[in-house]
TrEMBL record:
Residues 46-267 form the Solute-binding protein family 3/N-terminal domain. Pfam families: SBP_bac_3. Its main location: other. InterPro entries: SBP_3_CS, Solute-binding_3/MltF_N. GO terms for cellular component: cell envelope. The keyword Signal applies. This is ABC transporter, substrate-binding protein, family 3. Keywords: Signal. It comes from Lentilactobacillus hilgardii (strain ATCC 8290 / DSM 20176 / CCUG 30140 / JCM 1155 / KCTC 3500 / NBRC 15886 / NCIMB 8040 / NRRL B-1843 / 9). Belongs to the bacterial solute-binding protein 3 family.
Length: 271
């Protein structure tokens, strides 16, 4: 993992003793012309982005090359900021800590904006409005709504909002590493379902058969929606402000919707 060096504003002062005139030339005019956010960048002329790179369709490798919704989003944001997107694939267990130690400018990794995280980090406006879904085996009629999961075995990712929601409802948790594995556990009858993000289902259904499975929509009154946002170090307020401005432009010109349709087959970027 490479740690970029921050760009610092500087002043060059030339003293002319004979005339008593003090000349000051301020460098980094690029920072001034762009509202000062470039002074917070880890590497000059680059937006350094932390992500896992193993979580389709958000960020993953295809033919050895990074791709995905958040990869394309990062490139689009960087382009409008007149910067190059520099991606730093990092394992989940050290990804957020890396932001705290200034290894990158921003994290784009399907991260939910939670009260606990907001104590230590700052967030952009949301670029995904996540909703929960209940997915079960089509032949299992014992689970039709959230209140039915009490005492049932559900496959959930460790440490996720999905797991927290399932535990809150009294479900028995069976750890699962990824969404494809989760659905396999349901099909095999080893668990009775999963509480998961609707966008995970949309992305899977876009290119895979969902035969034998049932998707149950969960209303906002049953489970509060989750905002997915870019996450920043608390001191990088100028980068966050610029990111938000660019994100609004991408929303307005339809880029966010196009990317969502490309990777999820639905628009999950609107409330």
């Amino acid at each position: 993992m490479k740690i970029g060096k921050g760009i610092k504003r500087f002043a060059l002062t030339l003293g002319v003793v004979a005339t008593g005139v003090l000349l000051t030339a301020c460098g980094s005019s690029n920072s001034s012309s762009k509202g000062g956010y470039t002074s917070e960048l880890k590497q000059s002329k680059q937006l350094t982005i932390g992500l896992e790179g193993t979580y389709a369709p958000y960020s993953y490798r295809q033919g050895g090359k990074l791709t995905g919704f958040e990869v394309d989003l990062g490139k689009a944001v960087a382009k409008k900021m007149n910067l190059k997107a520099n991606f730093v694939p990092t394992k989940w267990d050290s990804l957020i800590a890396g932001l705290g130690s200034s290894k990158y400018d921003v994290v784009l990794n399907n991260i939910a904006e939670t009260p606990e995280r907001k104590k230590s980090y700052i967030f952009s406006t949301p670029y995904i409005y996540s909703r929960y879904a209940l997915i079960t085996k089509a032949s299992d009629k014992s689970i039709q709504k959230l209140s039915d999961v009490k005492g049932k075995k559900l496959a959930e990712g460790t440490g996720t909002n999905n797991e927290a929601q399932a535990k809150k409802l009294g479900a028995k948790i069976v750890p699962s590493g990824d969404f494809t594995t989760t659905l396999a556990l349901i099909r095999q009858g080893r668990v009775q379902g999963t509480i998961n993000a609707r966008e995970a289902w949309f992305a899977y259904a876009k290119s895979n058969s969902t035969k034998g499975l049932t998707y149950h929509k969960i209303s906002d009154s049953q489970a509060e929606p989750v905002n997915i946002s870019a996450m920043f170090n608390q001191k990088d307020t100028k980068i966050k402000a610029k990111f938000n401005k660019v994100l609004q432009q991408l929303r307005k010109d339809g880029t966010l919707t196009k990317l969502s349709q490309k990777y999820f087959g639905a628009d999950i970027t609107k409330e």
